[in-house]
Amino acid sequence: MTADIVAKRVTNLLAPQVLVILMPPVVGLLAQGWRGAAWGLVASAFCGGVPATVIALGVRSGQLDSHHIVDRARRTGPLLAAVAAVLVALALLVVMGAPTLLVATVTAMLAALGVTVPITLRWKISFHAAVSAGTVVVLAHVLPALPTAIAGGAVVGLVCWARVRLAHHSWTQVTAGAVVGTATTWATLAAFGLG
């Protein structure tokens, strides 16, 4: 298997949409059992499902180059849809009394978007790196922290390598994404008293 094939597979398997759909129910399940998983599915539907649908429709219509939105100039619409979907998810979770960890997780997604969206309008920060790093921070809260951070750091490194290997980002762009994802997620969980 060539390095480019590995990079494409890593990019697809650990795409932001995939992680944002899978992570909330897994975190909910680990933290609070099946009830937590159900709350996580609500978060997944809005935070991951809505943006993934918007992107899929954009690709189908030819307005977007791929579900990774390589062309930075085309990111604005889907990203604004993602922000709106995350806001709706957050409002629903708060009003319906969802567990604090899931409210904090969705708030962290919103915080990361609040930093990365303005940046990407001028410079192509890596959403793959930001989302994978943020996912590791959340998982380290519900799994043994040190092993999760070590294994997760290796996965984030692999994601960063794949994005650079495919020439979708520079090392500076993936590093910035990983730093933003880590910092915003950690700060948000800490603000909720979960750090």
Query: Total number of helical segments?
Result: 7
How large is the share of residues in beta strands? Answer: under 5%
Mean pLDDT: 92
SSE series: HHHHHHH
The biggest sheet, with number of strands, parallel, antiparallel or mixed sense and barrel status, is: none
Extract low-pLDDT stretches.
none
Summarize the structure.
By secondary structure, the protein is mainly alpha-helical.
Architecture overview:
Helix content is 80%, strand content 0%. With 195 residues, the protein is mostly helical. The model has no long low-confidence stretch (mean pLDDT 92).
What characteristics describe this protein?
195 residues, mainly alpha, single chain, 0% strand
Q: What's the SSE blueprint?
A:
Layout: H1 3-13, H2 16-61, H3 76-95, H4 100-120, H5 127-142, H6 145-165, H7 171-191
Helix pairs in contact: 1-6, 2-3, 2-4, 2-5, 3-4, 4-5, 4-7, 5-6, 5-7, 6-7
